[in-house]
Amino acid sequence: MENYENLLPRPTIAMAHGGNLSLRDGVIVRSGSPESAHLMAQTIETLVRRGLTIQAATGSVETPAAGPSGAAAGPALVTVTAVTGRAEEWYRVTVTPAGIHVEVSGAQGLVHALTTFTQLLPADALRLAGPGHGTWSLPCGMVEDSPVFPWRGGMLDVARHFFPKRTVLRYIDLLAAHRFNRLHLHLSDDQGWRIASERFPRLASHASWRASTKLGPEGEHDNTPHGGQYTLADLAEIAAYGRARGIVVVPEIDIPGHTSALRAAYPDLGQPGVEHTIQDTVWAGGSSISPTEPVIAFLAEVLDELCEAMDPPYVHLGGDECDMSWWEADPAIAAEMTTHGYTQAREMHGHMLRALATHLQGRGIRTIVWDEGYVTGGVLEDTIVMAWRGDNAAARAATTHDVIRSPLFPTYFNFDQSSDPDEPRSEGGPITLDDVAAFAPAPADWTPEQRSHVLGGQFQVWTEWVPTEERIDYLVFPRAAVLSEVLWAGTPADPTDLFARLVRHLDRLEALGVAYRPLDGPHPWQQGGTGVWQRTASGTIEETRKWVDSVSEEP
């Protein structure tokens, strides 16, 4: 039946068996084994959100007898069973006229199983209030699945433009609805610091807002303050909310470059005698803090505070686009270079990242850096390299380290989606649905060793030109839906098959309230118009790709 043919991402096995299950009020939920009792609460919550009332049972419950039509005469029975010997995110959902049997390897598998169950229902089941009638007819069948890659994520930049906690929580739900399992939060940059530190209050009072913003290098200043911050309690809530939905939230503090906001709050961290201000342009380069021991000690305290709140398994330390031009002339930095036997400033870049990674390692946390950190030696043996500067940078890092594939092309979703002049202004492009579908996370021409180091991939949304939640929706969807299938299956997608299912999937996005871009172009109210948001991108994505490849060997 078409319900089993329109799942997204496409499962490994999905087949209809004939017949239907009538889901109505009074569903019975039971644990199939003592090991799965802890999974019942999440199952019940999902069923309730789908408009059903629940009668929960923890002991043995007899399967309801079938009526003359084959459907259960009594309430449907939902059984959840934890199994061993399967991959971490494996699940199987079996629908019969009597009920639903969910088998999972653990909590993450259950998240995926419940997502698949929801996709088998009509799209209206995704609406927050449900259908109001408390009854669904679910075709019988079976779905069995597990992903190829353990890292399937999205990055949201909340530093260039701040987004409130409710937006972050909403994006956790949207990622989970597409079987992603990582949310990378870019929490600091030249334009703002988003963590309300209790140990260092100036980070909240002096680094979390800027006086003005302008759109593009030639744009006009709006002379309007912009900013915001997350308290440590907010960040703890975000992390817990993600864990409950199978999403690991990965915080990023970008150092030692992209640190104008940090230096504005604590000038002693930066170049002596230079005025440090939060940048009011949409992109700023040429910033850095000192890589010396006092600064490393300061950042270690900041990281301790963040980790105590969020308890993350990973922390991203950035390491990209750092200006090191003043380091060798600074007496304190020069002295430390001599102490460590370094002869080049870039060695201090790697030194700082390794020192903080070692500190995090002591807390049981694994560090991630952008690929510039790999070039300067800022990695430990277990450091993960997030490679954005083309295939060459990723291939080089994958010879020795685990890699998350996040190349500008085609995973930077802040770029145009087509060459249509009606597209709203963005940073270039286009990066189309076809481009995303053709992405190979582990390229076929890599060696087996390199391919084995690919953990997965993620999309990025840099928000220099993305001031609203609606703009995020427009840029991310449906491209993220396409990438979810690529990362789940581990190979480029068949566009004919995928796009046929994507048409049906748009109904789900509609029910979720996502302001996605229609497949045939933007709605009139999503277009750039003739004002400040008019599309002005010059050049082509091929030129951008050549530039990225040309700088991939540089720190």
Characterization of this structure:
The longest helix is centred in the middle third of the chain and has 18 residues. The protein has 555 residues and is an alpha/beta fold. Strand 5 and strand 6 form a beta hairpin. The relative contact order is 0.10. Helix 6 crosses helix 8 and helix 8 runs parallel beside helix 10. The chain is built from 19 helices and 21 strands.
Short description, anyone?
It is built from 19 helices and 21 strands. The protein has 555 residues and is an alpha/beta fold.
Which labels suit this protein?
single chain, alpha/beta, Chitobiase, domain 2, TIM Barrel, eight-stranded parallel beta barrel, 19 helices, 33% helix
Number of domains: 2
Low-pLDDT sequence parts:
60-72
Class by alpha and beta content: alpha/beta
* Main pleated sheet: 8 strands, parallel, barrel
Radius of gyration: 25 Å
The rounded distance between the terminal residues' Cα atoms is 53 Å
Q: Strand percentage, roughly?
A: 15-25%
Which term fits the overall shape?
globular
Q: Count of DSSP helices?
A: 19
Oligomeric composition of the shown chains? single chain
Secondary structure: helix percent:
25-40%
Q: What is the C-level CATH assignment of the largest domain?
A: Alpha Beta
Q: Which CATH architecture of the largest domain?
A: Alpha-Beta Barrel
Family: Belongs to the glycosyl hydrolase 20 family.
Protein name: beta-N-acetylhexosaminidase
Catalytic activity: Hydrolysis of terminal non-reducing N-acetyl-D-hexosamine residues in N-acetyl-beta-D-hexosaminides
Enzyme class: hydrolase
